[in-house]
Write a structure and sequence with these properties.
The protein is α/β, with parallel strands linked by helices and 227 residues long. 31% of the residues lie in helices and 27% in strands. Helix 1 (37-52) packs across helix 2 and helix 3 (97-108) packs across helix 6 (189-198).
């Protein structure tokens, strides 16, 4: 099965063509960027497809991160993935950003829970905690870093994500320190492809996962009442 995986949820634009039959990555590209995902994604996908020697008709499945993440970035990736699926008639799966961040650590050892945290700014994080056998111990949510630290500091745990340092700074006194802290800031599209290959399509719709309202809101102070 050939999977095209794309990620624009956070401060990077990434794409990969991965063959699940051989677990071989045919091509991958990852560029760190805070802005410009809309302009960068399609040319990146074209380069990755060319490097992989693959046509869109050869792709069996499209995978995309659905959030949490940047409102604008999520729309870019989701729109592209849906468009690819519509044009080819192939399925499109969406996976949570936090799940993809945790995947490499869980694949290496799933006996110790992994808490994935993304810096949501202003002392807040997006958090998810996954335990043995992929069991979700803390579902994806937005919360203050100090509350997030308390919620995961109840035993051995590993931390990953741009918010991992915030959890360490807020770690409760007397609690067992994290066994590992990996400040990986953005998801790996290869792991996105691997998870998508075994994901349940009914529970992996390509729809945005928003854990809080957008920072930008309509201005209502000067609005003229309708008559």
């Amino acid at each position: 099965m050939l999977i095209l995986a794309i990620d624009t949820a956070l401060d990077a634009c990434s794409a990969a063509v991965h063959d699940m039959g051989t677990d071989e990555t045919r091509a991958v590209e990852h560029v760190v960027m805070a802005r410009g995902h809309a302009e960068s994604l399609i040319p990146m996908v074209e380069r990755v497809m060319a490097a992989a020697g693959t046509a869109f008709g050869d792709i069996d499945l499209f995978a995309v991160t659905v959030g949490p993440g940047s409102f604008t970035g999520l729309r870019v990736g989701l729109s592209a993935a849906r468009g690819f699926g519509l044009a080819t008639g192939k399925p499109v799966l969406g996976l949570p950003t936090l799940t993809v961040l945790a995947a490499p650590l869980l694949a290496r050892d799933d006996a110790v829970p992994v808490a994935a945290a993304i810096d949501a700014r202003h002392g807040n994080v997006y958090l998810q905690m996954i335990g043995p056998a992929g069991r979700v111990l803390v579902s994806p949510r937005a919360m203050a870093a100090k509350d997030a630290a308390r919620s995961v500091a109840n035993g051995p745990v590993r931390l990953v994500g741009s918010g991992a340092g915030l959890l360490v700074d807020a770690w409760p006194l007397g609690a067992q320190p994290p066994l590992e802290v990996r400040a990986t800031a953005t998801p790996d599209p290869v792991w996105l492809a691997r998870i998508a290959s075994v994901a349940d399509p009914a529970r992996s719709e390509p729809k945005p996962l928003y854990l809080r309202e957008a920072d930008a809101k309509p201005q209502t102070g000067g609005r003229i009442a309708r008559r």
